[in-house]
Design goal:
196 residues; Aminopeptidase; 7 helices; 31% helix; 7-stranded mixed β-sheet
């Protein structure tokens, strides 16, 4: 059994899921100027954005389909990233996205922790049957994390992304509820939620 707080929907080993705050817009703007972050997060062109542009963006939380979270470290309560789920209620499916905006927190387990929390939230709280995501072919680091968490490759949109004179595939991956239920962290959750 792992040592993170398995019974919590919002707290992992390294981060907690938090609500987006108006003061977060400055960080979102700063991250939009980080080409690595922006090119890993978005299919379209990288574009710097002002803090005000994030204020204008409608918060989809009100529509009952979009669930947006920020990621804050447990040790310092520092905003380091964001992610979310888009739920299709009639099909019980969710599309997931994650981004670690602070460069010093990349490749240190924070993204994995965020992914685990969002996947658990999708299955435990939203009742999803399938959680899917897309990943660019030039991002093997993310693919490794997704595979480690039980995601399965479903297919590729061949050469659908053009970056710096090269074409890359966009891969689809997913995790189904029965696959998630046999993973060790799910078993540990069940031991906490349903003791004895």
């Amino acid at each position: 059994m792992t040592d993170w707080n398995l019974g919590s929907l919002f707290t992992g080993q390294l981060i907690r899921l938090a609500a987006k705050q108006p003061e977060d817009h400055a960080a979102f703007s700063r991250w939009s100027e980080d080409a690595e972050y922006t090119r890993l997060m978005y299919f379209g062109p990288a574009t710097p954005r002002s803090p005000e542009s994030f204020e204008d963006k409608k918060d989809h939380h009100d529509d009952g389909r979009h669930f947006h979270f920020t990621f804050r470290t447990l040790t310092e309560d520092k905003l380091i990233g964001q992610g979310g789920l888009e739920m299709n209620w009639s099909n019980q499916t969710a599309e997931l996205w994650v981004g670690i905006g602070e460069p010093d927190y990349r490749s240190n387990g924070y993204g994995t922790d965020a992914m685990r929390l969002l996947v658990n939230y999708a299955f435990r709280e939203l009742g999803a049957y399938r959680v899917g995501l897309g990943v660019f072919g030039f991002n093997p680091r993310a693919m490794h994390v997704y595979e480690k968490l039980g995601f399965v490759h479903e297919g590729a949109q061949r050469e659908s992304l053009y970056r710096d004179g090269h074409r890359f595939d966009m891969y689809s991956m997913s995790l189904l509820r029965p696959e998630w239920e046999v993973l060790p962290h799910y078993q540990a959750i069940q031991a906490i939620v349903e003791p004895g």
